[in-house]
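Q: I'm writing up a methods section and want to include an example of the input and output format. Could you take the sequence below and give the corresponding predicted structure tokens, formatted cleanly so I can copy it straight into the document?
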Amino acid sequence: MTHETERDDLIAELAVTRAALIATTNGLTDEQAGARPTVSALCLGGLVKHVASMEENWQRFAVDGPSAMRFDLPDGVTWADMAAGTAREYPRWAIDHQNEFSMQPGETLAGVLARYEDVAKRTEEVVAKVDLSATHPLPDAPWNRPGTVWSARRAIIHIIAETAQHAGHADLLRETLDGQKAT
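A: Here is the clean output for your methods example:
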């Protein structure tokens, strides 16, 4: 009988949720991975890109705190401008975030999956060595309640939850795309 540690449990659950997400892309062409089969702007390749980026941000947060996730705005631009879509200039992080949800020219599903695999390996290394009880304040952003503090453990659990949520979205996209069910 083996005794799994909390770290083993976190890594195992990450693997389960990642596998559910990746399964939705099995057998797809690059064109299919970039297709938007529903009224939303979501595509399967874009969801994998977004989850990889999100995971990378939270894994860095678990180690380095809020400096790993900055949401600075250009001079004279407010959060209200951003929310209304009337900002005279958009910060690089916002543009990059928007581009995560689609396959960009020259991107391939194989490349997207390879990047996700690299991010996953780094996350597993972080989970294996980070002090899971270490805490950091969440970065300043309107979607984070001021003064909220998360542990590294909470950040890892958030990665698992977001991956599972997006795997569900991806399953619906895949079924809409070609009738295949990943689960």
